[in-house]
Design brief:
CATH superfamily of the largest domain: NAD(P)-binding Rossmann-like Domain
CATH topology of the largest domain: Rossmann fold
Helix content: 25-40%
Number of strands: 10
Distance between the termini: 14 Å
Order of helices and strands: HEHEHEHEHEEHEHEHEHEH
Largest sheet: 7 strands, parallel
CATH architecture of the largest domain: 3-Layer(aba) Sandwich
CATH class of the largest domain: Alpha Beta
Structural class: alpha/beta
Number of helices: 10
Strand order of the largest sheet: 6-5-4-7-8-9-10
Oligomer: single chain
Length: 260
């Protein structure tokens, strides 16, 4: 089958003839595939995503037109877990001449998907008290991370890490003001988990650091990222040598499954 690498939409010149007959499309998490774009591909039957988030796709349009959408899952979980744990350890060791330990401190997790659960397992093994919040209360067993109401997690955690769904604002400025001023925060969500204006107003008035990767900083203004205490790591937490290989393998496997 002919392969077209799209650097513009629609392509110019001779590639246009093949473009309109495209029946399978591979895309990334930054690609915007709205109805206006997808309608230019009347033969399209499959979209393979090199990402977990489907936020950039008009799913109502794809359902209506019978276009199968296949994200990939779990490929970057290990890298993200390791990134978050690295930030926790750096925080504990960064005391001015008085490095400390994580054991005995409380880690608060906002969200409890696969990555948050992975972080929680490591933190428990390190002796931390781990609590989490999800919109629906979840039962837990002794020795496991415990569900708590949002406000209690925010006000009681010694360290906070956000693991909420992509581009969803799960806390407000009122919620953020419950976080003790010096509490460090780690954000690896896709997009900020709060309105940017709320984040800016909150971070501008507190002492603690907020560490984020490039996923969390996506579409965030430079002025916001320059607020004192914001520490942007110039990397995607999920992107490691191993995760890239897993992602590419899943992408191709999904495509081959759709063709068979």
């Amino acid at each position: 089958m002919p392969l077209i690498r799209l650097t513009e939409w629609p392509p110019a010149g001779a590639a246009m003839a093949s473009f309109v007959h495209t029946d399978a499309l591979l895309a990334g998490w930054k690609d915007k595939l709205d109805a206006a774009r997808l309608s230019r591909l009347p033969s399209l039957r499959y979209i393979g995503l090199r990402s977990t988030s489907t936020d950039g796709i008009d799913l109502e349009y794809t359902r209506r037109c019978g276009i199968k959408v296949s994200p990939i899952y779990g490929y970057g979980d290990t890298g993200t877990v390791e990134f978050v744990v690295e930030q926790l350890l750096q925080h504990a060791r960064s005391g001015e001449g008085k490095p400390g330990e994580l054991a005995g401190r409380r880690l608060g997790l906002i969200g409890h998907g696969a990555v948050a659960r992975g972080v929680g397992r490591v933190a428990v093994a390190l002796g931390m008290d781990v609590v989490f919040h999800t919109p629906t209360r979840r039962p837990t067993r002794d020795g496991e991370p415990r569900w708590l109401p949002l406000r209690e997690v925010l006000r009681s955690a010694d360290v906070l890490s956000f693991h909420s769904p992509a581009y969803q604002h799960v806390v407000t400025l009122e919620d953020l003001r419950l976080v003790p001023s010096a509490t460090p925060v780690v954000i690896t969500t896709l997009g900020l988990p709060m309105a940017e204006s709320d984040f800016a107003a909150w971070q501008s008035t507190r002492e603690g650091r907020t560490v984020m990767d490039l996923c969390a900083a996506h579409a965030t203004a430079d002025a916001t990222l320059r607020i004192p205490g914001v520490e942007l790591r110039n990397l995607y937490a999920a992107r490691t040598v191993e995760s890239v290989k897993r992602a590419e393998r899943q992408l191709i496997e999904n495509l081959l499954a759709a063709l068979n």
